Amino acid sequence: MTLDARIPSGPVAQKWDKHKFEMKLVNPANKRKYHVLVVGSGLAGASAAATMAELGYQVSCFCFQDSPRRAHSIAAQGGINAAKNYQNDGDSIYRLFYDTVKGGDFRAREANVYRLAQISVNIIDQCVAQGVPFAREYGGLLANRSFGGAQVSRTFYARGQTGQQLLLGAYQALEKEVAKGGVKMFARTEMLDLIQVGGRARGIVVRDLVSGKISSHVGDAVILATGGYGNVFYLSTNAKGSNTTAIWRAHKQGALFGNPCFTQIHPTCIPQSGDYQSKLTLMSESLRNDGRVWVPKREGDTRAPHLIPDAERDYYLERKYPSFGNLSPRDIASRAAKEACDSGRGVGPGGLGVYLDFRDAINRLGRDKIAERYGNLFEMYQRITDEDPYQVPMRIYPAVHYTMGGLWVDYNLMSTIPGLHVLGEANFSDHGANRLGASALMQGLADGYFIIPYTIGHYLAGTKLEPVSADHPDVRAAERAVEERTKRLLSIGGKRSAQSFHRELGRIMWDKCGMARDASGLREALQRIPALREEFWSNLTVPGSGAELNQSLEAAGRVADFLELAELMCTDALHREESCGGHFRTEHQTEDGEARRDDERFAYVAAWGHGGEGKAPVLHKEPLAFENVQLATRSYK
Amino acid sequence: MPMKLTLRVWRQAGPNADGAFREYQANDVSPDMSFLEMLDVVNEQLTAKGEVPIAFDHDCREGICGMCGLMINGSAHGPMPATTTCQLHMRSFADGETITIEPWRATAFPVLRDLCVDRSALDRIVQAGGFISVQTGNAPDGNALPVPKQDADAAMDAAACIGCGACVAACPNASASLFTAAKVAHLGFLPQGQPERYRRALKMVAQMDLEHFGGCTLFGECQEACPKEISIDTIGRMNKDYLTGMLFEPAENQKAAGAG
Amino acid sequence: MSVSTLPAAGVARPPAGRVRRFWDSSVGKKVVMAVTGIGGIAFVIAHMAGNLQMFTPTAPAQAMHTYAAGLRKLGPLLWIARGGLVAMVVLHVVAALQLTARNRAARPSAYGRKEHHTSTWGARSMRVGGVVLVGFIVFHILDMTLGVGHPQFVHLDPYNNLRLGFQRWWAVGLYVVAAGLLGLHLFHGAWASWRTLGLRRPSDRPLHRNIAIAIAVLVTLGFAAVPVAAALGVFAPDVVQEVAP
Question: How many other CB atoms are there within 10 angstroms of residue A125's CB atom?
Answer without folding.
Answer: 20
